[in-house]
Amino acid sequence: MQQLTSLFSELIVLYLIAAVGYLAKRTGAFDRQADHTLTRLVLYITLPALILYSLNSPFRFSLAKNLVILIFLSAYALGAATLKAHFYLKENALPSPRQGIQQGLIIFGNQGFLGFAVCQALFAKEGIMYAAIFNILYLTLIWTYGIYIIARNTTSFRWKMIVLNPGTVATLLGLLIFFLPWDLPNFFNKLLLSLGSPTPPLSMLLIGSFMADLATQKVWEIAKDKHLWQAVFIKLVLLPLLIIPFAFFGIDYKVLAIGVLLTAMPSAPTISLYAKKYGGDVSYASLGVFISTLLLPVTLPVLYWLLNMIYSLM
């Protein structure tokens, strides 16, 4: 019960931050230039710093088995999500500006922001370490394929966007740091933490600001789109349910719980940032992120309860 209370507290804080961003735009404290500046600040400075900080965990060979399992679960979850998103577009006609967004809403979750907070609340420091390992493939994919699916239909798309961007560089450096036999100097670790910590609140401020740009009629129009709700259902329910059966293979409870929890995270705010930067449908992306985050307090406790029930019966 205490763990679920911590989870709800994290979600409430995020919702309130988004509300501040909404009010800031409505009152004129944020203008469109502020959106542009904050987007670049997050994508180019705070998020890469958070990536480096999260991967600055000492590698221990005693954890090799769990590391392999976590990477397998991550690859399985991302592979299933990518295939589902790909075939969804094959079977459903969406406007061009929403095609990459739809894929992004299904594939990429809020694993780096909310995911770390949830894992820390439930499993303390060990949860952070396992989450960092699980997120290695995710970080690589969201900064490469994530950019590609949203920017590919724009005239500004260049392949160097995928290779030469701060997220890809930060992930590669983070992997190098993770496998080094020593930690970064303490002062540098504090620097990364100081730079990276603003990422979650800044991202939610932007989501709120993006939402404030939507006319009420536009919100209702998008909210009635069946494709948006199908993306939310796939992300919050279907994909994590595909992870739970691995409990019957004797996987350590904490390892599988991390996999289920991170796969069950709502759609990533980064998708809205990409939409803003690369010309996707920002309104559709922002509402998808908002709705999936709003429903998380309903779906996540149910999945967590189901996982615990299975392990209690084994």
CATH fold descriptor: Na+/H+ antiporter like fold
Largest sheet: none
What's the number of extended β-strand segments? Answer: 0
| Gap between N and C termini | 22 Å
Summed over residues and divided by their number, the pLDDT gives a mean of: 84
In the CATH hierarchy, the architecture is: Up-down Bundle
Verbal overview:
The chain has 314 residues and is mainly alpha-helical. The protein has one domain (2-313): Na+/H+ antiporter like fold (Up-down Bundle). The chain contains 15 helices and no strands. The two termini are 22 Å apart.
Quick recap:
Helix content is 79%, strand content 0%.
SSE topology:
Blueprint: H1 2-26, H2 32-54, H3 64-91, H4 96-107, H5 111-142, H6 145-151, H7 160-163, H8 166-179, H9 186-196, H10 199-212, H11 216-223, H12 226-243, H13 253-263, H14 269-278, H15 282-313
Helix pairs in contact: 1-5, 1-10, 1-15, 2-8, 2-9, 2-10, 2-14, 3-4, 3-5, 3-12, 3-13, 4-6, 4-12, 4-15, 5-13, 6-14, 10-14, 10-15, 12-13, 12-15, 13-15, 14-15
